Amino acid sequence: MRTYKIAAIPGDGIGTEVVSAGIEVLNALAMRDGNFEFSFDHFDWGGELYKKTGRMMPEDGRDQIRDHDAILFGSAGHPEIPDHITLWGLRLNICQPFDQYANVRPTRILPGIKSPLRGVTEKELDWVIIRENSEGEYAGVGGRVHQGSPLEAATDVAMFTRPGVERIIRFGFKLAQSRPAKHLTVVTKSNAQRHAMVMWDEIAAEVAKEFPGVTWDKMLVDAMTVRMVMQPESLDTIVATNLHADILSDLAAALAGSLGIAPTANLNPERNFPSMFEPIHGSAFDITGKGVANPIGTFWTAVMMCEHLGENDAANRLMKAVERVTADERFHTPDLGGKARTADVTAAVIDAIQGENA
Ligand code: NAD
Ligand code: K
Ligand code: MN
Fold first, then answer.
1. What is the pLDDT of residues 264-313, one digit of tens each?
2. Structural domain count, the chain
3. 194 part of a folded domain
4. CATH number for the domain that contains residue 324
5. Does some domain include residue 189?
6. Is residue 313 part of a domain?
7. DSSP states along 221-287
8. The Isopropylmalate dehydrogenase-like domain covers which part of the protein (predicted)?
9. For residue 358, what pLDDT is reported?
10. Above 80 in pLDDT, residue 329?
């Protein structure tokens, strides 16, 4: 029996609701498979811990999870604490030191779910967005002076390193190569941002030479939003900076039906540190505690975690179970226009996992 040690960090808001649903589903999946099991360690890091201790996670937090096979994360964000404190204190405090530099966000239209784009089909919207996850606009470099004076000034410096850009673009080409369309779109704002973004374009052209079988093109991020809406079928694999891809992937999730269905893998491809898996969405204060959070994003995230662990049969089984459930409108939560509750969707996915042909 293979045992995978998973660090579960639900965080705050609906993070706790969707992660506990995810754990139920993963345990059912392992039981159905019979060849492996999950051993979950639970970490109550987040806003409540911050209110007690002034820290979102303990000082030795990363040492506590360093040897786990993977991390299952919910959301960092608490209504009583400024967002930059919760984000930097927890999510970025894990992603960046663990060098999870490749943030992978697949988007497609699942069966039964309607895109807000008129007439768009499953074949026409099937993307993977790769977000640079270690530097750029979220490098944390900058400062603020003369606070409280009319001369107050502040900077957030987007810092890009050649190795950082090269590795994410190479990751993008490799991933594009593994997909049927074999096409990569490199997104920048290299007309206005004439230093780092021009370096991105140059590095893309260099790395492209290593991948003769992959076609590629360049887009400016503003025009990219238009192309995603008007010509979704022209896109396949997309690589962009930390900030740009953060924004584009929320748009992508909405175009595929809801922010509640979209998954993320924060990968350390070299496997020097554990990788972290989370739904794209945040704490969703407006629906916290109501039992209506859509858990599909977390289940799809769990699929990505199983793939990362090498449990491909289980990953396929879970994805099929998710698709069987989304195809049935009775299991649509309010974000998809339905009346189902988190628990209904979770039970339906577990049923589908246990089903005869699953
Ligand atoms: P959000 O993703 O929490 O919510 C945006 C909207 O989408 C809300 O209307 C919400 O109800 C809806 N939504 C999100 N997930 C849903 C789900 N699973 N089911 C149904 N509806 C869902 O974004 P926000 O409101 O900008 O942020 C709230 C808090 O979460 C902030 O503190 C923010 O910093 C934090 N946040 C954290 C992460 C993360 O940890 N990775 C990501 C995004 C936001
Ligand atoms: K999240
Ligand atoms: Mn985001």
1. 999 999 999 999 999 999 999 999 999 999 999 999 999 999 999 999 99
2. 1
3. no
4. 3.40.718.10
5. no
6. yes
7. HHHHHHHHHH-GGG--EEEE-HHHHHHHHHHHHHHTT-GGG-EEEEE-TT-SS--EEEES----GGG
8. 5-349
9. 64
10. yes
Q: Which atom of ligand 1 is nearest to the CA of 76?
A: 40
Q: Closest ligand 1 atom to the C-alpha of 286?
A: 11
Give pLDDT tens digits for 88-114. 999 999 999 999 999 999 999 999 999
pLDDT of residue 357: 65
| Chain segment 181-192, per-residue pLDDT in tens | 999 999 999 999
Under DSSP, the state recorded for 56 is S
Nearest Cα to 271, choosing from 62, 70, 104? 70
The total of other beta-carbon atoms located within 10 Å of residue 62's CB is: 15
Host domain of residue 350: 1-101+271-357
Name the residue among 140, 8, 135, 12 with its Cα closest to residue 84. 140
Which residue's alpha carbon is at the smallest distance from atom 43 of ligand 1? 282
Residue pair 152/144 in contact by the 8 Å Cβ criterion: yes
Look at residue 160 in the predicted model and tell me its pLDDT.
98
Please check whether residue 149 lies inside any domain of the structure: no
Q: How far apart are CA 297 and CA 305, in angstroms?
A: 12
CA of 151 to the centre of ligand 2 (A): 36
